[in-house]
Amino acid sequence: MWTVSYIFPNGDKYEGECCRTSDGVVMRKGTGTQISSSGAVYIGEWNNDMMSGTGTLTHPSGAVYKGQFQDNRYHGNGTYFFPDGTKYCGTFNNNRCESEGDFTDSEGRVWTGTFHRKAAPALKLKLI
Which residue, 9, 55, 70, 121, is the most exposed by fewest CB within 10 angstroms? Predict the structure, then answer.
């Protein structure tokens, strides 16, 4: 592996580690930072030219995801901070909230329960 600084034809920029495959193709692998032309910033681990491992993705909207990635998706344990100050902390599966997790509302109350896709039936207020 070695470190590169690369600007893609679409204006995206990558600075970090990479490797060369047996076919001679250079791929992102290891740790690095990608800044998209739209303003999204990913800082973290790469494998097979995809966000995989632990990292932080900051969106132009102000939303931030910190946690585990697999094949360019939120996958594993992580926290998603919404632009309005609310957040979800728990398990993600293919970019979706899945399993047990906590949601903190805009007033700082923490709701806990089982999340599945866009639903979270029977959330309970977590007493701290």
Answer: 9
Letter for the amino acid at 37? S
In the numeric block, the tokens 């990479």 are attached to: 18
Query: In DSSP terms, which residues pair with 63 in a beta bridge?
Result: none
- Tokens of residue 8, six digits: 């893609």
Indicate the SS3 state at residue 85.
coil
The strand pairing partners of 94, in sequence order, are none
Q: Look up residue 77 and give its two tokens.
A: 């344990």
∠ CA(69), CA(74), CA(79), 5° rounding? Answer: 100
Residue type, 55: G
Count of all residues that appear for the chain in the document: 128
pLDDT one-digit tens code per residue, 54-74: 999 999 999 999 999 999 999
In the sheet where 41-47 sits, what is the strand order? Answer: 2-7, 13-20, 26-35, 41-47, 50-58, 64-70, 73-81, 87-93, 96-104, 110-116, 124-125
Q: Which residues contact 128 (CB under 8 A, 6 or more apart)?
A: 110
